[in-house]
């Protein structure tokens, strides 16, 4: 089968969060199942494109509002990513360093989708399935069905994956003229709440819709930032497929970002080296258990709870807490301010560091995920693979991947995204840490859990196959 993924992020080309991890891994695992798999991603001016060898394979032009915009398709020749990647280059618009945080994001998302579909339409051999990810690509299934110029694509099945329903990419109608001419009888498919809503459009128009865990799919029927009615209506074509992790990139035995590689048989010494390094670097106490948080400092991750969690915990308990993340200014400010209050047991790195994240997974004793909403969550699976015990709120994919130690499981779970629940879980963690025999036993068990993409890549293939027989 020939599958084309389209996404605004893809590791290691450009990563802001979990979307990149998924699009950098799922195609590789599908390719390993003997399919032809490629991804279409924007060209960013960053260290990846500085170092990569690229080949221009197509030059074209799209009508973009009142102007014609040239674009190029640049194929990644090296490094070998395990599947083919095509980068859409549009001068001044897409070729920037940062992925998001631009005032003209709407134009960036639109131009990327327009160039991607324009190029696909020129191909002699069309893909068997087009797989779009998140709102940045949500208009593609619509254009494939109803844009006159892309009539040829309307028999190609499209699948749309929601990685996070909170971000919907709404666009005002005064930008409608950027879209190619389409059958106006179907204009309603673009609309949600009097705005063009690419996430809603993707849900309405794709042949199948998936989210990244079964529990999140269920939750979306009740709470989907305004789209719950739509998701209930489209329920028959919606599926929850649990994300996997790339066990080649995330392998403590080979991970080049670690200070020392380790496996189950030498986990104690391997992890000790990383914990010691973290404690020295961040002035923490290496004899106390270490609880860490890695992620975007936003409400859905429960990041606003962190300052109170840190204060309440460190006032009553002898543990360390370390934070790696960036996001809301107020949360960043509070997390920085707390450093002076708890010198020697708390610290934070406000920013983004891929390398530090790997070292934290390898050195922290527990990983905190107090998420309010977690479509899947990858951090808990990275933590498990590296031997850190996850402390999670039972929501979305966290509920699907972590079982509490009280239920013969391997993690610590609580029900509510409130400070008290998280503090109580930390207390349970500290108690478990004191029982080193039990702690080590769990650690060895979690490192052997298979969360690789193999199973889920096969599930996606099964979904694609039903579409191909339907066309
Ligand atoms: N400051 C920082 N420095 C270094 N690394 C950092 C970092 N902040 C985050 N990361 C990394 O970014 C990734 C985050 O992945 P998640 O799945 O938790 O989150 P995200 O909310 O972005 O993704 C959305 O999409 C994914 C993929 O479908 C879903 O799992 C998830 O629930 C959904 O919210 C991990 O690789 C993590 O290590």
TrEMBL record:
It comes from the Bacteria. Synthesizes alpha-1,4-glucan chains using ADP-glucose. NCBIfam families: glgA. ADP-alpha-D-glucose binds at residue 15. Residues 2-233 form the Starch synthase catalytic domain. PANTHER family: ALPHA AMYLASE DOMAIN-CONTAINING PROTEIN, GRANULE-BOUND STARCH SYNTHASE 1, CHLOROPLASTIC/AMYLOPLASTIC. It is an enzyme of class 2 (transferase). This is Glycogen synthase. The lineage of its organism: Bacteria, Pseudomonadati, Bacteroidota, Flavobacteriia, Flavobacteriales. Belongs to the glycosyltransferase 1 family. Bacterial/plant glycogen synthase subfamily. Its EC number is 2.4.1.21. InterPro entries: Glyco_trans_1, GS/SS, Starch_synth_cat_dom. Residues 283-415 form the Glycosyl transferase family domain. SUPFAM superfamilies: UDP-Glycosyltransferase/glycogen phosphorylase. Keywords: Glycogen biosynthesis, Glycosyltransferase, Transferase. HAMAP family: Glycogen_synth. It catalyses: [(1->4)-alpha-D-glucosyl](n) + ADP-alpha-D-glucose = [(1->4)-alpha-D-glucosyl](n+1) + ADP + H(+). The keyword Ribosomal protein does not apply. Pathway: Glycan biosynthesis; glycogen biosynthesis. It holds the Pfam family Glycos_transf_1. One of its GO terms (biological process) is glycogen biosynthetic process. One of its GO terms (molecular function) is alpha-1,4-glucan glucosyltransferase (UDP-glucose donor) activity. Coiled coil: none annotated.
């Amino acid at each position: 089968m020939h599958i084309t993924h389209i996404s605004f992020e893809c590791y290691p080309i450009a990563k802001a969060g979990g979307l990149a991890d998924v699009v950098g891994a799922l195609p590789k695992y599908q390719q390993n199942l003997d399919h032809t798999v490629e991804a279409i991603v924007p060209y960013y001016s960053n260290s990846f494109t500085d170092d990569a060898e690229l080949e221009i394979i197509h030059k074209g032009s799209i009508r973009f509002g009142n102007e014609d915009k040239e674009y190029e398709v640049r194929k990644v020749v090296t490094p070998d990513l395990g599947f083919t990647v095509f980068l859409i280059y549009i001068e001044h618009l897409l070729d920037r360093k940062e992925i998001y945080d631009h005032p003209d994001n709407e134009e960036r998302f639109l131009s990327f989708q327009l160039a991607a579909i324009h190029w696909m339409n020129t191909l002699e051999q069309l893909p068997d399935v087009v797989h779009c990810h998140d709102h940045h690509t949500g208009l593609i299934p619509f254009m494939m069905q109803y844009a006159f110029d892309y009539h040829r694509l309307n028999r190609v099945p499209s699948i749309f994956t929601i990685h996070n329903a909170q971000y919907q990419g709404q666009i005002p109608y005064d930008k409608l003229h950027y879209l190619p001419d389409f059958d106006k009888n179907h204009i309603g498919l673009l609309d949600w709440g009097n705005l063009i809503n690419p996430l809603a459009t993707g849900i309405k128009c794709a042949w199948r819709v998936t989210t990244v865990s079964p529990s999140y799919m269920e939750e979306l029927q009740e709470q989907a930032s305004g789209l719950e009615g739509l998701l209930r209506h489209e329920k028959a074509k919606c599926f929850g497929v649990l994300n996997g992790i790339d066990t080649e990139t995330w392998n403590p035995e080979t991970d080049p970002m670690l200070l020392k590689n380790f496996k189950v048989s030498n986990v104690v010494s391997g992890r000790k080296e990383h914990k010691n390094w973290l404690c020295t670097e961040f002035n923490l106490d290496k004899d106390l258990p270490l609880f860490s948080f890695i992620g975007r400092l936003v409400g859905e991750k429960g990041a606003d709870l962190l300052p109170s969690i840190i204060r309440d915990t460190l006032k009553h308990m002898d543990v360390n807490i370390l934070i790696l993340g960036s996001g809301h200014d107020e949360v960043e400010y509070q997390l920085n301010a707390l450093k002076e209050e708890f010198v020697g047991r708390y610290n934070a790195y406000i920013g983004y560091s891929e390398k530090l994240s790997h070292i934290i997974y390898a050195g922290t004793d527990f990983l905190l995920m107090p998420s309010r909403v977690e479509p899947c969550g990858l951090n808990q699976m990275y933590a498990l693979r590296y031997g850190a015990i996850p402390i999670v709120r039972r929501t979305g994919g966290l509920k699907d991947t972590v079982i509490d130690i009280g239920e013969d499981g391997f993690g610590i779970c609580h029900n509510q995204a409130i400070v008290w629940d998280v503090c109580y879980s930390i207390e349970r963690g500290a108690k478990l840490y004191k029982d080193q025999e039990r702690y080590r036993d769990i650690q060895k068990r979690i490192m052997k859990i298979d969360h690789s993409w193999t199973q889920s890549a096969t599930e996606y293939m099964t979904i694609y196959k039903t579409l191909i027989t339907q066309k």
